[in-house]
Write a structure and sequence with these properties.
16 helices, alpha/beta, disordered C terminus, 484 residues, 39% helix, 6-stranded parallel beta sheet
Length: 484
Amino acid sequence: MSITKKLNILMVAACPFPANHGSAASIREMSEAMVRFGHNVHVVTYPTQEDIPVKGVVIHRVSSPFVKPGAVKVGPTGNKFVYDPLMIVKMIQVIRKCNIDVIHAHNYEGALIGWFGKILCRKPMLYNAVNSMADELPTYNFIKPRLLAVWLGKLLDNTVPRMGDYITVVSDSLKEFLLAKGLPENKVKVVPAGVNLDMFAAGNADKIRLRHNLSGVPVVMYTGALEEFQRIDYLLEAMKEASSTHPDARLLLVGNITNLTSRAKFTKMAEHLGIADRTIFLNSVPLNELADYLAVADVTVVPRPECPGHPVKLLNYMAAGKAVVSFRGGAKGLHHMHNGYLVQDHDHQALGRGISFLLAQDDIRAILGAHAKQTITGNFDWETLARGIEAIYYAMLHGFTPDAHKQINHFIKDTYIYSCIDRRSLTQRPHTSVRRSSDRRTTETRINFIERRKIGFQNKPSPKNEAPSVAQLEAASVNYASRS
């Protein structure tokens, strides 16, 4: 599809960029997709970065002679109090110099910074919400006492999302969270994190098995940060449970950001649990080796329960075609025994039993992994999601008309809750019995066979879901160009 009017887009990334972790990775991949579509993308960000190529994107960094960039870290740091005010100044300069059309602010600090550009430069701002702060902020132990961190988190949750002209959230649960705060539903759209499928098309498993002496042993894998909110403690407890039936299995924690404090803490815990000899902690594995590591994995794990966001690690697992064991709270886009193995939040023993079950079932692992990869295509790949974000940009600039909604809804679904499709539920009242529920397998009852019912996203049937024509897209472009 061709749109004649190309946009100048400003991404506000109040974080190290590029970097090999969730938000920074999503901003990079989203920005690169917009460049592929022909838009000009500018990123205003910190001086801290990792050696990761960013194709076609113009990066504007703040700097201060009083602060050394230091290492890439997840969460709050003292440097932010210097960098964030500097980003406001840099952002305004970029908006004026580069004739920016739309501001795309990511995370809480990005929204706070972007708001100044919205007010002072009169530019529309899209806010991309990826988490809630009341639960996450206290886990960093940066603000003390803990009650103060909780209070500040709640304040941010109640104020920052209102700064955007439109809001995208990475999960249905986060949307419900914001709607409960009083935000209007017509301003909030679920746009999950995305993944590039071609990144995981091939991985060199032999190289990694040789490097870590893993020949002939089953491998359980976690990728990502070792921060407290990721609940690595649950993962280690689960591995102890799985080790009772698979004593030869190895757990690889493939870190993306070095955190020596957390690593020391969890190393001690592994020793206490008696699994230190089968647990391997890896610091800051480069992004270009992630596919190689995932190629080794027999089972991948998401140990974070009650996760309002969308774990990027989960998308990577799915794109690599791996069997996933997850708490339900972190299992965005998964359905039990269709494309993953799900257990109730916080039940680390059940998490361990799930790992143990899949390690023993080669055929089921293969089917779950294949279904997981199929789920990505057309739903969580960046080529699809970025087209939806592009349509939101145009709608913000020339109005959320029926045609604009049609364009957005062609690429972005009404909901990203993956469940059993019961066509009767569209015309009948839902039955009150748990046994007769359309998705009864979300209960405590465990099944250990592949789900045979039709699984999908429960979108409402609507003409808005029809594909927009090229003429409609061109009309949208001309409409915007006439107002520029």
